[in-house]
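Trying the structure run again after the queue cleared.
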Amino acid sequence: MSRPKRRRIGIEILSEDELISMRQAGLVVARALEAMVAAAQPGVTTRALDQLAVELLAGAGAQSSFLGYEPGYGVPPYPAVSCLSVNDEVVHGIPSERVLTDGDLLSIDFGAILGGFHGDAARSVEIGKVAPAVAGLNQATEQALWVGIGAAHLDGRISDISAAIEGSLKVGGAKGEGYGIVRELTGHGIGHAMHQPPEIPNHGRPGRGPLIAPGMCLALEPMATLGSGA
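Done. Tokens:
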């Protein structure tokens, strides 16, 4: 689940033992995403996928990072355990009786709490056969994630990640002019809370922001569109 831009405060640094514990929460998320991706087929409702996620959480002895989450700004608590966003919804779609159809692009965003630590990750799934432009968008956004991960190294800066993601997404898209980048939402630090500093935008100049240090945990969240970032 991406984070609205907010003011920066302190960054949590985890010990090696804490990182090992946090990995268990991440594995719950990874296994749940794998199962939900496999179940995402034409004719399935997004509510049915969310119910599968509920069962997977219970089976793992974990709690939801998303259910009841209050983002502020007068927005009511989130009512589900997963964000299931179809096509132009991009992110934070609420599960419903919407039926997935051939050609849809579904974003599955999922978070779990285990042993006091949060895991948070997402997958974008092509339902049936999608248009070539949609497949290209999906591939380019995944590539931007890996490029961003590659730019994260000790003693580098957080904005090195942002710049790398932006540079990757500027390649391809309509007429080779690049993809639209969602700027209002960011990646974030993660640990004992789901949303922590630092914010990690998907655009920016390198060499800025906090130094990347051992024990920091970062959730990178490239978000791109076939139109404008808005």
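The CA atoms of residues 25 and 119 lie 5 Å apart. Worth checking whether this holds up in the mutant runs.
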